[in-house]
Amino acid sequence: MDIQHIHSGSKGAFIVKVDGERLAEMTYTMPAENKMIIDHTEVDDQLRGKNVGQQLVHAAVEYAREKNIKIIPLCPFANAVLKKKTEWHDVLN
């Protein structure tokens, strides 16, 4: 699954496109250089059951590790995934 990262100013998203159509996204804001607030995750029904949401969260975790950023998961889905995956707790704020 090809996950693209879009970042502009203090906002961004990790997205999945299929045939040019955006079918999954996880959006965030950056209130500071070292803080990412994940505020929304959405996966189209076409991709349900393929762990796409978890893959989006994983992409955010890898980005956060690379940039030394802490994640604040306000999105209920991202929060649940991050709490379950203890190996990702290093990026939680």
UniProtKB/TrEMBL annotation:
Domain N-acetyltransferase: from-to ranges: 1-93, 6-93
Pfam families in UniProt: Acetyltransf_CG (PF14542)
PROSITE patterns assigned to the protein according to its UniProt record, in alphabetical order: GNAT (PS51186), GNAT_YJDJ (PS51729)
InterPro entries: Acyl_CoA_acyltransferase, Gcn5-rel_NAT, GNAT_dom, GNAT_YJDJ
Tree of life domain: Bacteria
GO terms, molecular function: acyltransferase activity
EC primary class: transferase
Keywords, comma-separated and alphabetical: Acyltransferase, Transferase
E.C. number(s) listed in UniProt: 2.3.1.-
UniProt entry tagged with the keyword Chaperone: no
Descriptive protein name: GNAT family N-acetyltransferase
Biological source species: Terrimonas rubra
Phylogenetic lineage: Bacteria, Pseudomonadati, Bacteroidota, Chitinophagia, Chitinophagales
